Amino acid sequence: MLTRSAKYAIKALAYLARRPEGGAPVRIGDIAREEKIPQKFLERILLQLNRDGILYSRRGPEGGYGLARPANTIMLGDLIRRIDGPLAPIPCVSVTAYRPCPDCGDESSCGLRLVMKEVRDAMANILDQTSLADMQKRSDAVKGALAETRPTAVKPAHARKPRRSNPTS
Amino acid sequence: MLTRSAKYAIKALAYLARRPEGGAPVRIGDIAREEKIPQKFLERILLQLNRDGILYSRRGPEGGYGLARPANTIMLGDLIRRIDGPLAPIPCVSVTAYRPCPDCGDESSCGLRLVMKEVRDAMANILDQTSLADMQKRSDAVKGALAETRPTAVKPAHARKPRRSNPTS
DNA sequence: TTTATTCCCTATCGATTTAGTAGGGATAAT
DNA sequence: ATTATCCCTACTAAATCGATAGGGAATAAA
């Protein structure tokens, strides 16, 4: 289960992703009000993402937060790992935070581990291939489909060719 | 993340699944010792699964626990839901325990929800199609592959045709 | 029928995590 | 100088997790 922190983080950053790139920074208070997130709670979350280099910030009047990178380079998997920790259901199948089971005799043939590795990979395939921009596109596609005669379905990100993570490279 | 309870439950039931079907019941103490699980802790878990009808039990000397159904009809998804609750990362995409987000304006076009629904479905596709017997088969396949010249790979359960949940029907 | 063994049941407990609040300090635009 | 904003630490109430304690009820075997 996602914690509220991770959920808030994603909603807040999705909000920032909707603003014109390179525009003026946005106040925490505005994000909190629009997305209905407790302000002081959100403050701590954005603070961390700022330290992590996902956000930039400016202090004082006219200050606020903005995305430090283009929205199509910020992956949900990365955000969730930073806030909630590893995606893996059990540590022995985590790629980013592997830890062996203290008791497991032969790890390579542990049935539970084999299944949970599949689960981890399935989650990671989605979350590491879906950016803030992708998420927004899919939301827009649903909204568009309600209004259009010929709805244009947007494929889930993991069914498409992976994007380069840095579009400037 | 799986709780220890769910992990213990699966390991304990996998242990029971390895015994001859219809054989004598197995003591909690034996399972706990073999699988290195705190006995009193395991007791509470098996008690619940007994109430849920997954296990049968017999008291007194020669007593113990056994699977109440064939191992190929007991799905990991079912076990995990009973012990840990819903698979879904957020309640608004849960099939078995749906609850709306209190704040979400238009649920159908919420980008986060669309992505998390994918994640839930990916997890459910694996865990609801993998039985205790499947898990064991995959473990055996790995062990076999280490010994054999031409290893026989066993496909993940969700890539095969779904089995009927009750083989007697 | 007694006794030993096993499951059944409830209560409790310490540690950790979660979800938030409080209260300032540092910085920068006006 | 003033004021708006981010920055930082500490604190807290409640829930959850992982486990232990201490018996009660049933039943097989002596």
List the helices and strands and how they pair.
The structure is a homodimer of 169-residue chains.
Chain A: H1 4-17, H2 28-35, H3 39-51, E1 55-58, E2 64-67, H4 76-84, H5 111-127, H6 132-147
Helix pairs in contact in A: 1-3, 1-4, 1-6, 2-3
Chain A binds a DNA duplex (30 and 30 nucleotides) through residues 3-5, 27-29, 38, 40-41, 43-44, 46-47, 50, 57-65.
Q: Could you explain how this protein is built, in words?
A:
The structure is a homodimer of 169-residue chains. The first copy, chain A, is mainly alpha-helical. Among the domains of chain A are: 4-68, Orthogonal Bundle (Arc Repressor Mutant, subunit A), CATH 1.10.10; 76-127, no CATH class. In chain A, 46% of the residues lie in helices and 5% in strands. Chain A has 6 helices and 2 strands. Chain A has helices spanning 4-17, 28-35, 39-51, 76-84, 111-127, 132-147; strands at residues 55-58, 64-67. A two-stranded antiparallel sheet of chain A has the order 1-2. In chain A, a hairpin with a 5-residue loop joins strand 1 (55-58) and strand 2. The longest helix of chain A is centred in the last third of the chain and has 17 residues, at 111-127. Chain A is globular. Chain A starts with a helix and ends in a 22-residue tail after the last helix. The model of chain A is unreliable at 163-169 (pLDDT under 50). The A-B interface holds A 1-2, 7, 10-11, 14, 35-36, 76, 85-86, 88-90, 103, 106, 108-112, 114-116, 118-119, 122-123, 125-127, 130, 135-136, 138-139, 142-143, 146, 156, 158 and B 1-2, 7, 10-11, 14, 35-36, 76, 85-86, 88-90, 103, 106, 108-112, 114-116, 118-119, 122-123, 125-127, 130, 135-136, 138-139, 142-143, 146, 156, 158. Chain A binds a DNA duplex (30 and 30 nucleotides) through helix 3.
